Fold:
Amino acid sequence: MYVVGDVLAEVYGWKAARRAIIIAFVMGALAAVTFYLVQISPPADGWENQEAFEAVLGFVPRIVLASVLGFLVGQLLNAYVLVWIKRKTQERKLWARLMGSTVVGEFADTVVFCTIAFYGVITGGDFVTYVIVGFVYKTTVEIVLLPITYRIIAYVKKREPTYELGSAA
Structure:
């Protein structure tokens, strides 16, 4: 979901949002590597639940790679587009910033994730349908959450002492 990314970019600007996105990406990748290393490590003597552990915490590296790269590309584009629209509209039309950045970010996220995770596994028209349905679903969720995003942004702007109109872009 792009609500947190939208708030970061809208209130704190591109540099702060980019920093937070990169930190989140690194932490997600680190968590994935940690789970993988724990999974391939030999179990402790007497531990009889290794198969259950692997079933719950195991993953397909391709899915994890797709997920973290989709997150990185989608969130960076979302933040960049939001800040770009904010400059162009001189901080008017919040709905245009939120919707425009979501469409771009979610599209990139979905294409990157689906391509890395399932290209060749899901083929032809089924792959295109999978990408379209994923994009439409995620974008619809963001549209439904728009009133909440508006309220969160207003709340944070009002209480953030470093926020000045026009300075976060």
About this structure: The longest helix spans residues 3-40. The CA atoms of residues 122 and 128 lie 9 Å apart.
